[in-house]
Amino acid sequence: MRTIRVRIVAEELEAKRIADILEQAFEEDGNPVSIYESSDDGRVWSAEILLFEMEPQEAADLVRDRVGSDAFAAPIEAEELPDINWVEKSLEGLKPVRAGRFVVHGGHDRTKVPGGAIGLEIEAAQAFGTGHHGTTAGCLEEIDRLLSLREYSNILDLGTGTGVLAIAAALMNRQSVLATDIDPVATKTALENARLNGAGHLVSGFTANGVEDRRFNEFGPFDLVIANILARPLMRMAKSIGHQTAQTATLVLSGLRVEDGPRILFAYRCQGFVLDRRREKNGWLTLTLVRGRKVA
Known about the structure:
Layout: E1 3-11, H1 12-25, E2 33-37, E3 44-52, H2 56-67, E4 76-80, H3 86-91, E5 97-99, E6 102-105, E7 118-121, H4 134-149, E8 155-158, H5 164-173, E9 177-181, H6 184-196, E10 203-207, E11 222-228, H7 231-236, H8 238-244, E12 245-257, H9 261-269, E13 274-281, E14 284-291
Parallel strand pairs: 6-7, 8-9, 8-11, 9-10, 11-12
Antiparallel strand pairs: 1-3, 1-4, 2-3, 5-6, 12-14, 13-14
Helix pairs in contact: 4-5
């Protein structure tokens, strides 16, 4: 895959503001954004975004168009990166992650899963969700809590990424889970990971944009939906998700900044859901909402 890195250099506050604008501008595309110091005195910072399958100048023009006058004065650089699996490269040396009773690990750490824990073997892949991000860990902790309290009949992992959340729910609940994603690479990866973890017979999936695909009707209505996505698409899909869930249902929503909480709660309150639990982890928010049952 051709990877283009676009960098905007500015003083700290301006660079951080630009990084926020990049995240919002490319939120629905899922392009990774990073921010870091680029001078010894800490005054100059770089905001970067990775874009794929385009020319460097095309990528720079796209960023300039999306960011607009907000970063007009800051220099924009674009360069093609060597053909390396950057996801795999970024995960080299990462240790297993404990989240509730789950331990997410690579194949080389298979023997490090302690007794009594549920190991989830997830290798680096072209899909989001390895347990090292606060949103994934927060969802895993909430899956552990919820499935310790009750059983669920129809579970949906919406925006499945690597499939780690679907696999966790399937292994703990010993029930079938539907895993879907807008990205066919993610869907393929999730199903492969399910087989790797001995949950291939429990996890099914397909590629779909949102939850309005007619195939959802074959699996729903869902009494547990796990959606580790982003605030904007979660708000846009609130009504559709409400229609796909049972009258008594639970939602685990993440991929959220802390400041996203109030607008997400409002959007889903309109669908009859109320807040059950709120988790913050490494600056990220995971919300558990319920409809038709008492708050725990």
